[in-house]
Amino acid sequence: MTKLAINGGLPTKTKPFPAWPHYDEREQKALTRVLESRQWWRTEGTCVTQFEQDFAAFHSAKHGIAITNGTHALEVAIAALGVVPGDEVIVPDSTFVATASAILFAGAMPVMVDICRDTECIDPDLVEAAITPRTKGMIPVHLGGHPADLDRLKEIANKNRLFLLEDCAHAHGSEWNGQKVGTHGIAGTFSFQSGKNMTAGEGGIIITNDDELERKLRSVHDCGRLPGEWFYSHFACGSNYRLSEWQGAILQVQLERLDDQRRRRDANGTVLDQLLADIPGITPQARDPRCTLNGHYAYIFHLESSAFAGISAQRFTEAMNAEGIRNQAPYPPVHNLDVFQNGAYKTRLTGEQANEEHAFLKADFPNSRRAATEGYWVPQYCLLGDEQDMEEIAAAIRKIQSHAASLLPGESSGAEKTPG
Ligand SMILES: Cc1ncc(COP(=O)(O)O)c(C=O)c1O
User: Fold this and answer.
1) Cα dihedral sign, 299-302-308-314
2) Among 13, 180, 196, 302, which one carries the catalytic annotation?
3) What pLDDT is attached to residue 413?
4) Do 273 and 400 share a domain, yes or no?
5) How far is the CA of 233 from the centre of ligand 1 (A)?
6) Is residue 350 part of a domain?
7) What is the pLDDT, as a whole number, of residue 21?
8) Which of 4, 100, 369, 384 makes an SS bond possible with 110, Cβ 3.0 to 4.6 Å?
């Protein structure tokens, strides 16, 4: 039997995963067009405006407002939704810090709740239990591309008159009950950071079907201006969150690939579900039957270390990397981040909220802890590969499982009994 690559054997992966980001002469031509037009600013150009319309149309939304990045998209949306100091907004404990920090930037308190063990998205029962008179809304995250339970969340939001803002940074083109994410609540925010499912290096967008909100979003993102008004009139508190024409031009081309790419990631995710189904100790992120398409920012699975001779997830990851399988780290639980544990978050709060104890920050969130400690994320671009790529991911896991004891402390390549 072959030796593990980490112990000097041959790697399982025989050909590289597709490179990311994808580009071809279309991006090159688009950038040259912007260069030669001398219109590099969205205010004078056409690329960002056209991209906003096309991205919104792809998601069957009325409006798109392009923003500098996904963090700012959340901040702009939260400002336009009227979140103010003293308010609370409910977020999942397993997400990138931006989902929570964007609320702090409005002077309001993010209230984290645990995720569901199976889908790893925010637990609607816990959302309901966390509602107080201060709660203004909720921001579910479609983790790894899998939509949160939008049926329940919509019902809870409507019943309690809360806003439902979808953080779709992982879920370009994902669908819930046949409807694309970002359109189930009042608005949806997306990121185009370099690892995301389509990218311009940095960038973001907010989509909405609400005309009044669109006006506010546009104003907040452009220094408080209003479309059609004199350039130096400023009607609201805003800032400069505008995207450049360079990014608009690249994103127009990236969007042309999204439909094919989301289908390929979804199909390969299903192939991996089948390939991993009978590996003891491996549990893929569950797929709710109402998830009609998973755009897969990552393929997530969990590792039960007892099925791998008790090795840590860290050691498993090192062994996978040596086998040629890529990974990205799962998020640490948000409530455990230093900014919350050392009290720095309170510098954004005022009045009563700044002086209160937020006891939930000391609580245990078993499912987000498990997601952080046992999770393995295969990045989205690996899912743009072919069936052989998927088979090699499964083969690497099986190989590590059968040699797991050689990865225990004290064991070394010399301890491998089988020849390479
Ligand atoms: C769930 C989530 N929300 C928001 C963001 C922020 O996006 P950006 O990096 O474009 O600011 C990210 C980025 O990783 C994210 O994963």
Assistant:
1) positive
2) 196
3) 44
4) yes
5) 32
6) no
7) 97
8) 100
* Residue 103 near residue 345 (C-beta atoms within 8 A): no
Ligand 1 center to 128 CA (angstroms): 25
Boundaries of domain holding 270: 5-19+257-329+371-411
Whether the link from the prior residue into 21 is cis, omega within 30° of 0, is yes
| Rounded Cα–Cα distance for residues 141 and 94 (Å) | 9
Q: Are residues 171 and 239 in the same domain?
A: yes
- Is 264 in the same domain as 407? yes
Q: Is 118 a catalytic residue?
A: no
All residue ranges of the chain with pLDDT < 70 are: 1, 411-420
User: Assign residue 216 a region: left if phi > 0, alpha if psi is -120 to 50, beta otherwise?
Assistant: alpha
CA atoms within 13 A on the CB side of 48: 24
Whether residues 249 and 262 fall in one domain: no
Is 45 found in the same domain as 181?
A: yes
Q: Which of 63, 136, 184, 242 is catalytic?
A: 242
190 is catalytic: no
Residue with tokens 């949306």: 77
Please say which residue of 255, 288, 304 terminates a domain.
255
Residue 96 appears among annotated catalytic residues: yes
Question: Based on the structure, what is the number of domains in the chain?
Answer: 2
Helix, strand, or coil (residue 268) = helix
For residue 137, the model assigns a pLDDT of: 98
Is 376 known to be catalytic? no
**Which atom of ligand 1 sits closest to the CA of residue 72?**
11
Ligand 1 mean position to 37 CA, how many Å? 31
Which member of 72, 136, 142, 170 is catalytic?
170
Q: Is residue 199 in contact with ligand 1, taking CB distance under 6 Å?
A: no
> Is any atom of ligand 1 closer than 6 Å to the C-beta of 204?
yes
What pLDDT is stored for residue 1 in this prediction?
A: 54
Is position 225 annotated as part of the catalytic site?
yes
Query: Which residue in the list 24, 38, 232, 278 is annotated as catalytic?
Result: 232
Known catalytic residue at 13: no
pLDDT at residue 296, as a whole number: 98
| Among the listed residues 241, 297, 261, 289, the one whose alpha carbon sits nearest the alpha carbon of residue 65 | 241
Q: What is the pLDDT of residue 419?
A: 34
Does a structural domain hold residue 265?
Answer: yes
> What is the rounded distance in angstroms from the CA atom of residue 149 to the CA atom of residue 141?
10
214-245 confidence digits (pLDDT tens): 999 999 999 999 989 999 999 999 999 999 99
Query: CATH no. for residue 10?
Result: 3.90.1150.10
